[in-house]
């Protein structure tokens, strides 16, 4: 979990190579080739007219949290094992997509939540295997490289 958090901090600090691919009035999505795997990294950025604490409540990875209510790509989120107050093993399931051409998925990750001195909040995750969460026969087991969300306060 700590390695995933550090990798996300490195992505955030390194502005090189990001190319814009989509943008609306609220969100800009960029990508760049990954140095870890044969594919691309993606990041979405936006400024919301809300306090960092209210935004964090919507995105933080906790059982019973708001993410399953607003994010159509998250069907369910459960904590398999709490390692500490800030680190847990979690299972996320996603619904099928594209008229069921893409099968439902499940992801098992170690997740860490952090708050930094400047008020930035982070959730970082990466793939793990856990004996209490064997693959389910009706779901495709997904694999996450280091990934997560930053909630960064901005002036005003």
Structural write-up:
The chain has a single domain (1-151), classed as START domain (Alpha-D-Glucose-1,6-Bisphosphate, Chain A, domain 4), CATH 3.30.530.20. Helices cover 15% and strands 38% of the residues. The chain has helices at residues 2-13, 52-59, 67-70, and strands at residues 19-23, 27-33, 40-46, 76-82, 87-94, 105-115, 121-127, 140-141, 147-151. The strands form 2 sheets. Strands 4, 5, 6, 7, 8 and 9 form a 6-stranded mixed β-sheet that branches. Strand 6 and strand 7 (121-127) form a beta hairpin. The model has no long low-confidence stretch (mean pLDDT 93).
CATH architecture tag:
2-Layer Sandwich
Fourth-tier CATH superfamily name: START domain
Number of domains: 1
Relative strand content: 35-45%
The helix fraction, in percent, is 10-25%
Shape: globular
Domain START: 1-156
GO biological process, one term: cholesterol import
Pfam families: START
Function: May be involved in the intracellular transport of sterols or other lipids. May bind cholesterol or other sterols.
